[in-house]
Amino acid sequence: MTRPYGVSSSNLLLSMDYTHQQPLFSVFIFCMRVVFIIWPPLIVGVVVLIWMVLVRNLLFSCIV
After folding, report:
1. Is it the case that residue 60 has pLDDT exceeding 60?
2. DSSP letters for 1-64
3. Are 23 and 16 in contact (CB under 8 A)?
4. For residues 59 and 51, is the Cβ–Cβ distance under 8 A?
5. How far, CA to CA in Å, does 5 sit from each of 13, 23, 29, 51, 64?
6. Which site among 9, 18, 45, 54 is 20 to 30 Å from 61 CA-CA?
7. In this predicted model, what pLDDT tens digit does every residue of 43-59 receive, in sequence order?
8. Which residues are within 8 A (CB) of 55 and not within 5 positions of it... i.e. 6 or more apart?
9. Which residues of 40-60 are buried (b: 16+ CB within 10 A; e: fewer)?
């Protein structure tokens, strides 16, 4: 039984009430927020890096 992504994210937001009892969980929520903020530029950087490596390999293979 698979749940849609929106349900799990809303459950994550609803779970913020438990941060008073569980400090570890609040740290996890904070890390998730940071990841969601950093995620898009990180994906772009990784894609650009892979693209550059592929282009360089293609150029070297064409030269050799």
Report:
1. yes
2. -PPPHHHHHHHHHHGGGGGGT-HHHHHHHHHHHHHHHHHHHHHHHHHHHHHHHHHHHHHHHHH-
3. no
4. no
5. 13, 25, 17, 29, 47
6. 45
7. 888 999 999 999 998 88
8. none
9. eeeeeeeeeeeeeeeeeeeee
Cα–Cα distance for residue pair 3/12, rounded to 1 Å: 13
Residue 46 tokens, joined: 């990784």
Residue 3 pLDDT: 47
Q: Model-level pTM? A: 0.36
